[in-house]
Write a structure and sequence with these properties.
By secondary structure, the protein is α+β, with helices and mostly antiparallel strands. It is built from eight helices and 17 strands. It has one domain: Metallo-beta-lactamase, Chain A, CATH 3.60.15. A seven-stranded mixed β-sheet has the order 3-4-5-6-7-8-11. A six-stranded mixed β-sheet has the order 12-13-14-15-16-17. Strands 1-2 form a two-stranded antiparallel ribbon.
Length: 290
């Protein structure tokens, strides 16, 4: 279990982590479409499917919130959670694994995500130690590139398009319902956190986003890793931002500029700084070419 529980507080311009009073966190539920919901609390957005087969969730936020998450789910189903699908290994999306796993839920994730969960990992950008999960918290089912789950009348397609936010990201689509959950490959808080030490890469996240966009149409509802319910156009706008910043950095590289010189041109100009600022995001973009 993650030992140093923390919460993201958006400050200007760097995201810092502080101890959180989880007693103050409320879980809110929004209906995405019939039988599919989005839960918000502290950490990544949770996707919820309820129906004749039972209860399935995508991501599970922080461990101390498991009771509140279960209580929110109980408003829609009397069944226990049967499956948990982790979009990636970061604690704000997977810290509840040990609780749900101990309760009998079967956890699913991409191979690399499970591998990261078996190791202690210091997330340098956010100065947080994430410790290896015990057996209850580890995925029991893994996959490499794709898998399909038939559940509650849905065909759930899970796709791994390669390294993006991390090296173990999964994009999930409820085919019949036309709903996608992106995990942290797509977020709505500004410049995204890209976990370079754990396989993340700006060119990679752009590639993964094009894969997600290809799975969507104008009517698709998109649950992002963080932020409000979105659509295909929001993903297109997000990719345009990432590609513009990347291209500005690449122009500097081809002109023989150093990282410091490129950063001074403010490659993120015109876009809101959020999880990262110009200096930190320019460094990530620069490193994507080497």
């Amino acid at each position: 279990m993650f030992k140093k529980l923390a919460m993201a507080l958006l400050c200007t311009p760097i995201l810092v982590f502080a101890q959180t009073d989880f007693d103050e966190i409320e879980i809110t539920v929004s209906e995405v479409t019939n039988g599919i919901y989005m839960l918000e609390g502290s950490g990544g957005n949770i996707g919820l499917s309820v129906g004749e087969d039972g209860v399935f969730i995508i991501d599970d936020q922080f461990g101390p919130l498991t009771g509140k998450i279960k209580a929110a789910i109980a408003e829609y189903s009397n069944d226990d959670v049967q499956f948990v699908f982790n979009t990636h290994f970061h604690y704000d999306h997977s810290d509840g694994n040990e609780n749900f796993g101990a309760g009998g839920a079967i956890i699913i994730a991409q191979n690399n995500a499970r591998m990261r969960m078996t190791e202690d990992n210091f997330l340098q950008v956010v100065n947080v130690q994430q410790n290896a999960y015990n057996a209850d918290g580890l995925p029991k089912i893994t996959f490499t590139d794709s898998m399909t789950l038939h559940y509650n009348g849905h065909t759930l397609q899970a796709r791994h398009f390669g390294s993006g936010h991390t090296d173990g990201d999964t994009i999930l689509k409820f085919e019949e319902a036309n709903v996608i959950h992106t995990g942290d490959v797509f977020v709505r808080y500004g410049l995204p956190f890209i976990d370079v030490p754990n396989g993340g890469n700006l060119n990679g996240i752009i590639r993964v986003m094009h894969g997600a966009i290809a799975m969507a149409d104008a009517d698709t509802k998109v649950i992002p890793g963080h932020g409000q319910l979105s659509g295909r156009q929001d993903m297109l706008d997000y990719v345009e931002m990432l590609e513009t910043i990347r291209d500005r950095v690449y122009e500097g590289i081809t002109a023989g500029m150093t990282l410091e010189q490129i950063t001074a041109t403010n490659p993120v100009r015109g876009y809101p700084e959020g999880f990262l600022n110009n200096e930190s995001f320019s460094k990530i973009a620069y490193g994507s070419f080497f």
